[in-house]
Amino acid sequence: MANSYRICVMPGDGIGREVTDCARRVLDSLSAGGGPSFTWEEQPAGHGTFLETSHSLPGATLDTARAADAVLLGAMDVEQIPPHGGDPLGGVRKGLEVGASVRPSRAVAGVDSPSADIDCVVVREVTEGMYARIEHMAGDDAACAVRLVTREASLRCARIAFAQAAARRDARAADGKPTRVTAVHKVGVLKLTDGLFLEACRAVADDHPDIEYETANVDACAMEMVRDPGRFDVILATNAFGDILSDIAAGLATGLGLAASACIGERWAYFEPVHGTAPDIAGKGIANPSATILTAAMMLQHLGESDAAARVERAVYGVIEAGDVLTADLGGSATSAAMTDAVIAAM
Length: 347
What we know:
This protein is α/β, with parallel strands linked by helices.
């Protein structure tokens, strides 16, 4: 008997609702073939929610997310939310106790990309670092931000990185590539914070002697990603460094239009596409749904539905490679609904 899951959906802003609806359609089609089924529990969050309720993340939304089997997010317009309106993404991360963002990037047939051999995952700590939101004015003409790094958060992130590497081992071996974690730092300058981060990474690496472990300065890592992206497997980084490097990886692969991500913790996880709200095309029905559908495939994998996840991924990549039904950003003229229909048909 197929499994059934409760999924909390926060459609977000702009094109968020359009593309999350596309992903829901794809996952609902799985049950017709004997696959898992889903109960969708839609909840408000984001800038639109702030305008309606004066807060961007209602408590009931977070309660529903905690009670669900997984959470699917659409893009949110967080920049327009004033400080008193709350931080919906930060609130979800804190409320669901996630430890790291996981962002895979690889070249896809049918999409022009600067690198044909990139196939890596950036694992980024997402609760602290430069994004800890600890700032103050240091006089009339100066401001200060505190970079917070803790051993607990660093260990949690490192464990997720090594788990990702272990999960990729068989596929890497089949391609003749090593299983490797690269911890990124700037310890020559950030001696205490990155020193502590690397101590935590080394402690976790010692528990995984079967996985190669190396460290790299963030600037050298960025250069090497451009020069030889195929050498990287899993890149492990603090918050700001990981934010930047994951966008480099996406740019070397397929761009943000196909970039999926997950934020994973020990108890809960949520899944969101990397792209923004695209207000210029919101409501026109022409947004590329691929990133959100691939994000939903990551959610399936996390739920233990590996076969279903593989079906969804193969269908998306097959439609893109065929090139007949693509949205404008991929060189076609199809609507979001038409491309979603093509993915469902390919499954």
